[in-house]
Write a structure and sequence with these properties.
Strand order of the largest sheet: 3-2-1-4-5-8-6-7
CATH architecture: 3-Layer(aba) Sandwich
CATH topology: Rossmann fold
Distance between the termini: 30 Å
Radius of gyration: 17 Å
C-alpha cells in the first residue's frame, strides 16, 4: 500500500471519502452504484475495440491483453479491473480511498483473480508504466486536471494506450446527470459537480499538452428501448482512446 504525497495530491480528500463510504455497496448491481453496473458493459465494449485497434489483436481472441500490463486509475471496487484481468492483462488498480481498495481486493479474491490493488495517489506510487491505462469517470473528481493528466501520461509506456471517460460540460448534463439523476436516486447525491465537467475539445487539448494523441472518441448516450450505448451523441458523457508515441 502506498500513501499520497501531500505535495502532489490531485484527488480531493472529500471526493475520496464520498466514494469510500459507498465501497461496501459497490458490487451490488441494484445498490447505490447501479448506474456504474449499467454503463460498464458499454465502457468495456469501447475498451475492447480500442485494444484491438491499437494492439492489432483479433476481435475474436478471448485474452487479447495476454502478456500486457494494465492500470486502472480510480478503480473503485474493481468493476473495470476484473474484466481487464479476464482479457489476459496483468492488472493494477489504484484508488485514493483505502476502503475501495479493500472491497476490490476481497471481491477479486472471491472471483479467483490475481489483481494488484493499491491505495493512494497514482503519482506517489512506485508502480512503473503500463501498456494500457484506464481512468473512467475520474478526471471530473480531481482538483488539478492538468497535473492529474501529467501523472496519467507518466504511467503509460511508450507506444501505450489510454482510455478515459467523463461527463461532458453541457446544459443537458447539468440537467440530467446532476439534477434529475440525483433527484430520482439514479446516482448518489453529491456524485457529480457540474463545474468540474470538461468538454471533449478541452480534454483533447490537455491530453495533447502531455504528449498523447486522441485516436477515437464516442458518446455514451441513453434512449428508451436501447438503454445506454455508444453513440455520436456526446452531450451527456463521452469516452476516448489516446496513444503515446513509441
Amino acid at each position: 500500500m502506498g500513501n499520497a504525497n501531500v505535495s502532489n495530491v490531485t484527488i480531493r480528500p472529500e471526493e475520496a471519502q464520498f466514494f469510500a463510504e459507498l465501497a461496501k455497496d459497490w458490487w451490488n448491481p441494484n445498490g447505490k452504484m447501479a448506474s456504474l453496473h449499467q454503463v460498464n458493459p458499454v465502457r468495456m465494449q469501447f475498451i475492447r475495440e480500442a485494444i484491438d485497434a491499437h494492439f492489432a489483436t483479433d476481435p475474436r481472441a478471448i485474452r487479447p491483453l495476454s502478456g500486457k500490463s494494465a492500470l486502472d486509475i480510480g478503480c473503485g471496487a474493481g468493476l473495470v479491473c476484473e474484466p481487464l484481468a479476464r482479457l489476459g492483462a496483468e492488472v493494477t488498480g489504484v484508488d485514493a480511498a483505502a476502503q475501495n481498495v479493500a472491497a476490490a481486493a476481497a471481491h477479486a479474491e472471491g472471483a479467483g483473480l490475481d489483481i494488484r490493488y493499491m491505495a493512494g495517489e497514482v503519482a506517489s506510487l512506485d508502480i512503473g508504466t503500463f501498456d494500457l491505462v484506464t481512468a473512467l469517470e475520474v478526471i471530473e473528481h480531481v482538483a488539478d486536471q492538468p497535473a492529474f493528466l501529467r501523472d496519467v501520461a507518466a504511467r503509460i509506456a511508450p507506444g501505450g494506450l489510454l482510455v478515459m471517460s467523463t461527463p461532458n460540460r453541457t446544459a443537458a448534463s447539468r440537467l440530467l446527470l446532476v439534477g434529475a439523476a440525483e433527484a430520482v436516486g439514479y446516482v448518489p447525491k453529491g456524485t457529480h459537480h457540474w463545474d468540474d465537467f470538461i468538454a471533449p475539445e478541452d480534454l483533447e487539448d490537455l491530453l495533447e499538452a502531455v504528449g498523447l494523441e486522441v485516436v477515437e472518441r464516442r458518446g455514451i448516450a441513453w434512449r428508451p428501448g436501447k438503454g445506454l450505448h455508444l453513440s455520436s451523441d456526446e452531450s451527456l458523457n463521452y469516452i476516448l482512446s489516446a496513444r503515446k508515441e513509441a
